[in-house]
Amino acid sequence: MSDETSVEPAARGDRIAGAVLVVLALGAWWHAQSFVAGFMQPVGPGVFPQLVSVPLGLLALYLMIRPGINHRWPSGASLCRQLGVLLVLGTYAAFIEPWGFVPTTLVTAVLLLRLFGANWRQALPYGVLLGVSLYLLFEFALGIPLPDMPGLGV
Amino acid sequence: MDVLDFLVHGFAVALQPQHLLLAMAGCIIGTLIGALPGLGPVNGVALLIPLAFNFGLEPTAALILLVSVYYGCMYGGRISSIVLNIPGDEPAMMTTLDGYPMAQAGRGGEALGLSAVASFVGAIIATIGLTLFAPLLVKVAIRFGPAEYFALFVLAFATIGGVTSGSFTKSFIAAALGLLLGTVGIDPATSVARYTFGWYELYDGIDYIVALVGLFAVSECLLFLERDPDQATASLKVGSAVPGMRRAIACAPTIGRGSIIGFISGVLPGAGASLGSFLAYVLEKRWWGTRGRFGTGDPRGVAAPEAGNNAAAGGALIPMLSLGIPGSGTTAILLALLLSMNITPGPLLFEQQPDMVWGLVAALFIGNLMLLVLNIPLVGLFAKMLQAPAWFLMPMVTLVAFVGIFSLNNSAFDLYMMLAFGVLGYLLRKLDIPTVPVVLGLLLGGQMEFNLRRAMSISGGDWSILWSSGITIGIYAFAVSLLLAGLAYAMVIKKRLE
């Protein structure tokens, strides 16, 4: 894989993942019991999920006992930038409809460029360029109606 | 009609101006995506799917575009391997071993030219293989019943360890997780809502496209944020690619062997292009022994893996088109595209949509030729584009994916879902759990369950129907042997790493 910057034994990550997956498998198995079987159907809606959750649970248990390798987890600065990107994109998703495509996309593009390491003097012009080209591409070249700005026709 | 007639008909479809234009665009975009470190074929094709939908392309055109991107990525992956010593994608990993030393010695142009020809030959051999073998497989598969199909799905999942070179446990965990995620939504047979927890947005199930753009593209973007900002963007002098073409004639036997090995590993379910290039390189090295200078800039070390991975890319299309079971991550995404357009690949596709299948095959031949022509003179340009600043490239890619997904349904829920899958994909990749099996599980789970239930209602609830025919037993035996081979392969890799 392309992200093999560093591989180190990290039992904890695998153990936590294993535990989460065991709980997920148990939950899925238990919840599948509530699916009502149809009339004259030898295999109801609950069978296949249960069939899948058994190996999932067993393998996850094995992962807890014999954890493998993990890639290096991010440190403070990268983690902040990652959370920042998620926050920006999440906010974008929340505001794209009420606020309209153009303003939200412009703000998002500038902030993303900034988070990916551009300085303000690069982020502002290129962010505006990116936002405007996306608008032109989707609205006119592809002919897709994008959410308008409230009160304006754009 | 026999294959040749179909193929002629296919060329008539593929040579339509719109299709030619799309193939051309796909080849260029694909080469670029493949060349950019980190953006592999899986991510590249995943990103373009929403765009293909937005263009309102009909299925044949969309498929031609994406398959050209797919082949283009395979060509492009080698450029950054050779010029920067960073594989553009996973299958291009082996190309760095001899390609970069050649570039350091000032023979970068030769390596690029040689690998372009090797890629071309590999891809053409695989496309010929596709033309010949896919119809044969279809003839067998047309007799398959639900029990046989269920066995095929078991085969696909049993061999999934080969898709990724990681741990077997983790690959199977990923597949099971994908299968479980695939059951979310209204059960089509009984209309029971499964794991929806009252969210009506989940009633239709998890949208494949949303999930896979999240798993691949968004997670890639998150991973990118923790890489070193300026990894070797030093500009090496590339030089002319012409001497590489002459070198290719000398390397013809190597290219031939690499192509055949790659093709076979591509056809095997779950093996894919990485295995193809790995085997082609290792076997070629073994073949020459001490007579080769592998690892220090031997041209054959560039020719073999490039022929191998391009041949595997073509081979992987065979199970996807003729059985509906993808052999690699990228073909899984192509399958997602087809399913989203209400087209189910499989033997019936060849009967009902010959235009599409044979148009696609013809487009592959044409696309390859375009790629070769593009790659010889333009390789310096592509190498230069690798130096575009990442701070612009990554936000652009992210936003195109984001707006593309949003415009599919104009739904903010899809965006949140994509972000959630992005975080999931990121965590899985950090844990070294492969993401491709998750997608395969998500994609194939519905069909797998459907066939299981149909088989069971035929037998009236008798489970032994699943292993009652000769074909099913054969498939299970094949699955077990591939599983063992995969285990052996994993051990070889482990030894090699130590």
Automatic annotation (TrEMBL), chain A:
Keyword Ligase: no
Highest rank taxon of the organism: Bacteria
Stretches assigned to the DUF1468 domain: 16-147
Sequence intervals crossing the membrane: 16-32, 47-65, 77-95, 101-117, 124-144
Entry keywords, A to Z: Membrane, Transmembrane, Transmembrane helix
Pfam families on file: TctB
InterPro entries per the UniProt record, alphabetical: DUF1468
UniProt protein name: Membrane protein
Organism from which the protein derives: Halomonas halmophila
Automatic annotation (TrEMBL), chain B:
Residue intervals of the DUF112 domain: 20-440
Record field: transmembrane: 20-39, 51-71, 111-137, 149-166, 172-193, 205-225, 260-283, 323-344, 356-383, 390-409, 415-444, 465-492
Pfam families: TctA
Keyword set includes rRNA processing: no
Keywords, sorted A to Z: Membrane, Transmembrane, Transmembrane helix
Entry keyword annotation includes rRNA processing: no
Protein's UniProt name: Tripartite tricarboxylate transporter TctA
Organism of origin: Halomonas halmophila
